[in-house]
Structure formats: structure tokens, C-alpha cells
Write a structure and sequence with these properties.
This protein is α+β, with helices and mostly antiparallel strands. Helix 1 links the parallel strand 1 and strand 2. The protein is elongated. InterPro entries: Alba-like_dom_sf, SpoVS.
Length: 90
């Protein structure tokens, strides 16, 4: 599964496009964000991506979870959003 890392400076529309493309091609994607600004951008991107995949008759299911990451010999807590596509309910 592909992992996208989102920062507080990430552009939500760009991240949403990447999420939508991966959902169409692989059916699932993981988004990781550390810090409140990054989480904000990630959530906005997920909402935008939902609109991007709707014309393909797809919806998404999001499972958020906390995860510990070792970055630069330091343990950080991140939010991980596991996103899967599913057929749109009519």
C-alpha cells in the first residue's frame, strides 16, 4: 500500500489528486500526518478526494489511527489515515 506523507504546507488539492489516483489504481492508500497543521491539510485533502472519485461511482472509507514513527532517532506520534475505495451507494 502506498503511503503519502502530508505536511502543514502540503496543498490539499494536490494531495487529493494523489489520493484519488491511488484509489482508482490500487483501491487503497495510507496518509500520514504529524502535527495539527498537517492533520488539517490531510483531512481537507481526504474530503476533496471524495469529490474527485464520485464521478467514477466510488466512495471512500477512512480509518484513522495513531502510530509511533521513528524520525531522526526521535519517536513521534502521527495520525495515519487508511483509505479504501468502495462502490458508491445509490
Amino acid at each position: 500500500m502506498e503511503t503519502l506523507r502530508v505536511s502543514g504546507k502540503s496543498r490539499p488539492n494536490s494531495v487529493a489528486g494523489a489520493i484519488a489516483a491511488l484509489l482508482r489504481s490500487q483501491g487503497e492508500v495510507e496518509v500520514q500526518a504529524i502535527g495539527p497543521a498537517a492533520v488539517n491539510q490531510a483531512v481537507k485533502a481526504i474530503a476533496i478526494a471524495r469529490g474527485y472519485i464520485a464521478p467514477d461511482n466510488l466512495d471512500l472509507l477512512v480509518k484513522p489511527a495513531f502510530v509511533k514513527l521513528d524520525l531522526e532517532s526521535e519517536e513521534r506520534t502521527a495520525l495515519r489515515f487508511t483509505i479504501k475505495s468502495q462502490p458508491l451507494d445509490s
